[in-house]
Write a structure and sequence with these properties.
- The protein is α/β, with parallel strands linked by helices.
- The protein folds into two domains: about 130 residues, Aspartate Aminotransferase, domain 1 (Alpha-Beta Complex), CATH 3.90.1150.10; about 240 residues, Aspartate Aminotransferase, domain 2 (3-Layer(aba) Sandwich).
- The chain is about 40% helix and about 15% strand.
- The chain contains twelve helices and twelve strands.
- The strands form three sheets. It has a seven-stranded mixed sheet with strand order 2-8-7-6-5-3-4, sandwiched between helices. The chain has a three-stranded antiparallel sheet with strand order 9-10-12. It has a two-stranded parallel ribbon with strand order 1-11.
- It is globular.
Amino acid sequence: MSIYLDSNATTQVHPRVVEAMMPFLTDNWYNPSSGYRAGRSVKEAIGKAREQMAALISASPEEIVFTGCGTESNNMALKSLARSLGRQNTKIVVSEIEHSAVLRPTEAMAAAGYEVERIGTDGEGRLEIAAFEQAVESSRPGFASIMWANNETGVVQPMAEVCETARRAGWAVHTDAIQAVGKVPVRVDEVPVDFLSISGHKFHAPKGVGCLFIGKKSQFQPMIRGGGQEDGRRSGTENVPYIVGLGEAAAIMAEEAENGGLERVESLRNRLEEQLQTGLGDGPNPIKFNGSREHRTGNVAHVSFEGCVAAEMLPMLDERGVQCSAGSACMTGKNQPSHVQKAMGFSDERAFSSLRLSLSIFSTEAEVDEAAEKIVEVVKALN
């Protein structure tokens, strides 16, 4: 039996999501832009999904624009902001721990003449808010892009303070909330970001669908122009089955949040950490838990195993049926320390010895217990 502990890379598609999608892959396959009744019924299904997605983050349905993935959502927001403000005297502030879907576009903007400043974190992976406040300059136009929760460590960033600082300066705020939505409360009515990126496959929708929250007062210039779908903000015939699936996944996660499902996942994560501590705490090579213990998503344990190398641990764990990662799935196979852990001040040795163990609503106590046992076994074998 395989034990899946890599839910920050992707999640199992929920059976209810598959069930909701199937009619739109078989009988109800019409173009939602068509004027006849069958097409209108498909358009209504998109509207329902928009309402479900908006409800999860306390937005209005008209503020949701469906996209092909989280990377597209990030690029849409960042490029719209850059075009709206123009290159002259504009400053862009991001954190050093952003996903490559934010770092690479802003690097391209820097090459094109925008000033881009990266802000570091403390040793717990939280944004240095004082440095951020200093970087945001009210005397010039600009915008900030700060992720809501980190994809490697699960550390949740101080988004309310980020928004407050940006508002004082008249700046806009984008957040990559791809690893936060469905895992911690995300409410745009309480934390007033201008743009917020979401990816469906991080919370039990299929790969290939996401969305971008665009605040009602936010200026927006579309990246994809054409037939005017999504109110002209993202043209192209809608991927109806996947959009319906995203909406159903959003409804499921809202139910999980209401019914204690997220707390159950957090208790399993804590159980996993406790068992690793018990199994290895007295050994010659202690374990270290990385990132803030207070400000983090409930599904991630990020752990360094002194004296071990994650690249050696992963295949040994895979042979024993435990599937996990050494960090971002996008960086798999790249022989370099995590930029997230380096920003936290970790040595290369500690960064190379780290595993990301990420759970989901499908994780069980039996899986956690067996995984902990096998991780302890592998660490002891390597020592």
